[in-house]
Specification:
Elements lengths: L1 H16 L9 H17 L9 E7 L4 H14 L32 H10 L30 H7 L3 E9 L3 H5 L17 H5 L5 H7 L5 E5 L30 H8 L5 E4 L2 H5 L8 E5 L19 H12 L6 E7 L1 H7 L3 H21 L5 E7 L5 E3 L12 E5 L5 E3 L1 E3 L30
Helix pairs in contact: 3-13, 11-13, 12-13
Pfam family, one: Alk_phosphatase
GO molecular function: alkaline phosphatase activity; metal ion binding
EC number: 3.1.3.1
């Protein structure tokens, strides 16, 4: 066995040898890179201006391994080896890490984390825009425990505000910027239990209209805005895409009425979106799908714009305000792809978010704009094995497992794709997993 391992290692070294580029064999290549990195850090003047604008990019579920794998993919999409690629996110001068636990759980969800980074208050799992005295799903505990978000603070300060997401606009991350809800799942009134309604709780979609006056709203989620059985304009034959509301309200029409003194546009497709002139538009509501948007890799560019295009339109509308703006841009489906064990989708979503960040930097001035890129939590997503330099990030390790079968470079610790033995997960009910195991017995 040892001999076999040694032979495999030797083979790997030989193959890898052929990939290394000549300039990288020269120590000066690395030393000059290090000097430049150090010099640019030393040359950097601290920007002490008060930010007029805030551009806030949130990669939902975009942990460190997702970030690394997406960097490699971004380079490989440009026919580079990939590992050395500099993402737009990599160019930011300051970096930090945060503890992401929630008040009641070791591992947080997007609702608890959004309340922490948008409202400044750690809270419980599944609740949005309320403090930890509120309990998941219990309307009575919501009242009096509301906490407001930076989006509202910006509006109160006279700035224009917007949300751009790739999920439904009622989803946890964007919803926390404008709603208070004991449950992240109360998308429309049909999702709010009768008892909660009796206790005075309202759904997230109605709060989109009734709370902070938001200038730009872009994402998906139109089915939560229209009365039950209303046909979707894009998928009229699809029953599941039809309106969900039981209170008979059409929130899209109500929104247009509320804004009729201003230039307000509602659009649901790319043609109408492209026709929106940011120079003359005060308000924009764009809902491109009944629920979440399609993954970037599956997007129909004739029907739906990319996150790069939506980010650009939002900034161009918001930046007309001389007092500045706050914009939340969420790459929301990185997380959803990870939940399904779909690394391909998650990484393409991350690359698209990085391109949107580049667009944001291009359209704003660093002297007056604070741009932040964050993740809310990570996923059980790993990079492992010893793939060669430049090997497809979505490929397999050149080594085999002890079962002599190949394995992928990217793996999930749970969900679809986690370890299956004899058709089932290992039965660990009687195993004390806190013990120090001298051998792999699991
Ligand atoms: C990468 O290479 C492929 C195949 O040769 C080519 O079709 C594609 O246009 C290239 N992409 C870039 C960004 O250069
Ligand atoms: C929400 O706003 C609409 C329009 O201004 C108003 O008719 C309605 O009563 C409000 N609802 C709540 C729950 O505040
Ligand atoms: C799988 O099933 C076989 C045959 O029933 C059994 O001998 C073996 O121990 C099982 N392996 C695991 C890991 O449960
Ligand atoms: C599991 O193992 C740890 C470490 O040896 C020990 O402290 C703990 O009491 C064990 N738990 C149970 C339920 O046996």
């Amino acid at each position: 066995m040892e001999v076999k391992r040694a032979a495999i290692s030797a083979l790997l070294v030989l193959v890898a040898f052929g990939i290394v580029s000549l300039e990288e064999e020269n120590p000066e290549f690395w030393r000059s890179q290090a000097r430049q990195t150090l010099q640019s850090a030393l040359d950097r003047k601290l920007n002490t201006n008060v930010a007029k604008n805030i551009l806030f990019f949130l990669g939902d579920g975009m942990g460190i391994t997702t970030y690394t794998a997406a960097r490699i993919l971004k380079g490989q999409l440009q026919n580079q080896t990939g590992e050395e690629t500099v993402m737009t996110m990599d160019t930011f001068p300051h970096v930090g890490l945060a503890k992401t636990y929630s008040v009641d759980f070791q591992i947080a969800d997007s609702a608890a984390t959004a309340t922490a980074y948008l409202c400044g208050v750690k809270t419980n799992l599944n609740v949005i825009g309320v403090n930890a005295a509120a309990r998941n799903g219990i309307c009575k505990t919501q009242k009096g425990n509301e906490v407001t978000s930076i989006l509202k603070w910006a509006k109160d300060a006279g700035k224009s505000v917007g949300i751009v997401t790739t999920t439904r606009v009622q989803h946890a991350t964007p919803a926390t910027s404008y709603a208070h809800s004991a449950s992240r799942k109360w998308y429309s009134d049909a999702d709010v239990p009768a008892g909660a309604k009796k206790d005075g709780c309202t759904d997230i979609s109605s709060q989109l209209l009734n709370n902070t006056d938001i200038d730009v709203i872009i994402g998906g989620g139109r089915k939560y805005m229209t009365p039950q059985y209303t046909k979707d304009p894009e998928y009229p034959a699809d029953f599941s895409s039809r309106g969900k509301r039981r209170d008979g309200r059409n929130l899209i029409e109500e929104w247009k009425n509320m804004k009729r003194e201003k230039v307000a546009r509602y659009v649901w497709n790319k043609n109408d979106f492209d026709a929106v002139d940011p120079e003359t538009t005060d308000y924009l509501m764009a809902l491109f799908e009944p629920g979440d948007l399609r993954y970037e890799a599956e997007r129909d560019p004739r029907m739906d714009p990319s996150i790069i295009e939506t980010t650009e339109k939002a900034i161009r509308i918001l930046q007309k305000n001389p007092k500045g703006f706050f914009l939340l841009v969420e790459g929301g489906r990185i997380d959803q792809a990870h939940h399904d064990g779909r690394a391909y989708m998650a990484l393409h979503e991350t690359v698209a978010l990085d391109n949107a960040i580049a667009k944001g930097l291009e359209l704003t001035k660093e002297q007056e704009t604070l741009t932040i890129v964050m993740a809310d939590h990570s996923h059980p997503f790993t990079l492992n094995g010893f793939p060669f330099r430049g090997q497809s990030i979505l490929g397999k390790s050149p080594l085999w497992g002890s079962d002599f079968l190949p394995y992928t470079t990217l793996m999930y610790g749970n969900g679809p794709g986690h370890k299956i033995r004899n058709g089932t997960r290992p039965d660990i009910r009687n195993v004390n997993t806190s013990k120090c195991f001298p051998h792999r017995t699991l």
